[in-house]
Each structure stands twice: as structure tokens, then as C-alpha cells.
Amino acid sequence: MAAPTPTVRQTPGGIKLDDGFSTKYTFAADPDLEIWEKSVTPPGYDGGDAIDTSTMWNTKLRTFNPRKLMTMTEGSFEGAYDPTCYTSILALINVETTVTVTFPDGSTVAFFGYLKTFKPNACEDGTQPTAACTIQPTNQDSSGAEQDPVVTSVAGT
Questions:
Q1: Beta bridge partners of 130
Q2: What is the CA 16 to chain-centroid distance, rounded?
């Protein structure tokens, strides 16, 4: 392989989101869960730590290779809740289902995953009670077959 050469940044395609309002999570197993999102963190991707390929034959620099597999990172949201959601959470937590993140422009990312945590925050005078929720992607269907997330863009993106 030849030495690296600089690449000129090109104008990105698509249409960027200008505001995060209103991004929402939906669980196929309970699409009307009694929680109202206030802040949402969609899942991301992580390539993992580099593989050190250095040997005693290296003379100046350590060398590395990327891993072959990546991880879809946890997503999360914080929201106001109806205390009756405790019953719904009990039936939903650790249950693999399709999880959908809907972005303000209507684009979606759907993936297999489950609600990992529901943790209410402190209830205080003059503050709306909220709970923090964590979603763990599984990236596999019920048979154990690996499944990529499905990204659906709206017209114009």
C-alpha cells in the first residue's frame, strides 16, 4: 500500500437535523408505554479497541488493525412517567422486541433490543418526576440470526 495522501472533505449529502425535538423511542411489545420522553440518546456504533499488531520487527511505531465486528451501543432516554408504568415495565424489561427511534424529520432506526433499565430519578418539590431508561441492542432475531438495524429515511434526506 502506498503512503497516505490527504483527502479533501466533500459536502455531505442528505439533510442534517437542526433540532432534536421531537425524538422518541417505541417498543413494539408496548408501543404506548406510560413514559413521555424529555431527552433521548439514540444508539450508536463502536468499532472496539484496536488490535495491536506490533512485533519485534517494528522499528519506530506500533501498528494496529481494526476489529472485524462492531457494537451497536446502548441508547437511552429520560422521561416523565405515570406510576402505573411499573406494571408495564415489569412486563417489558429484558424482553427482546423491535425498538424504533423516530427522529424529528420522521426518519427511523429500528433494531432488535430490550429495555435494560428503568431507574426513577429523585422526586423533589417543584420538579417533575422523571426516570432514566436504557435500551440494549441485541442485533439478533428470535432464532439468534444476526440482524442489522433498519434505517428508513423520509423523502428529501
A1: 80
A2: 18
Please, are residues 118 and 87 in contact by the beta-carbon 8 Å criterion?
no
Tens of pLDDT along the chain (157 residues)? 789 999 999 998 888 899 999 999 999 999 999 999 999 999 999 999 999 999 999 999 999 999 999 999 999 999 999 999 999 999 999 999 999 999 999 999 999 999 999 999 999 999 999 999 999 999 999 999 999 999 999 866 5
Side chain identity, residue 13: G
Nearest 5°: the CA angle 24, 29, 35 is: 40
What are the residue ranges spanned by the domains of the chain? 24-46+70-142
pTM above the 0.85 mark?
A: yes
Residue 71 and residue 66: Cα distance in Å, rounded? 13
CA dist 63 and 82 (Å) reads 53
In this structure, how many other beta carbons lie within 10 angstroms of the beta carbon of residue 85? 18
Question: SS3 for 156?
Answer: coil
